[in-house]
Protein 1
Amino acid sequence: MSSSVVDKNDTPNVQMLDEEQAAKFFENLVQSYLGLSADEFLKRYRNGEYKDACNNPRLLKVLMMIPKAARVGDHK
């Protein structure tokens, strides 16, 4: 039996983003996955247009990445 090592480094590969970097990341994600601006996506999200997202993996990924502030309506 053999085992695989994904990463020999014990340090997690995590990069913390500030608010501005996170907004830019989200904007780029939405544009590349859905072809919309983040503002347009969030407008549609708030209007309930994405309730049936289970069959769309790209949409699910975007939904999981919605910034916390945008979930409560604080997105600018």
Protein 2
Amino acid sequence: MTTPAERQRALLQTGAFLKQLAADPRLPEPTRIEARRLLRHFPRRSDLWLLGSVADLPPPDAEDEADWLRGYTHGAHDGA
């Protein structure tokens, strides 16, 4: 069973993955455009922090984030 914290982590990783795709010049332009389009509507780290505080989850920028977000060179989706 997936826990709320695991769902939150998956959302952060997905945002980071889309951010990475959008910035990768080796990918076709339509793929990068689509990744940017999806990111415009994707929850930012601050959105997840707010939702997590209501659900009593650890903040998305907890110190253990480095372990599961390390492979994403551009980091979590913070907007922009």
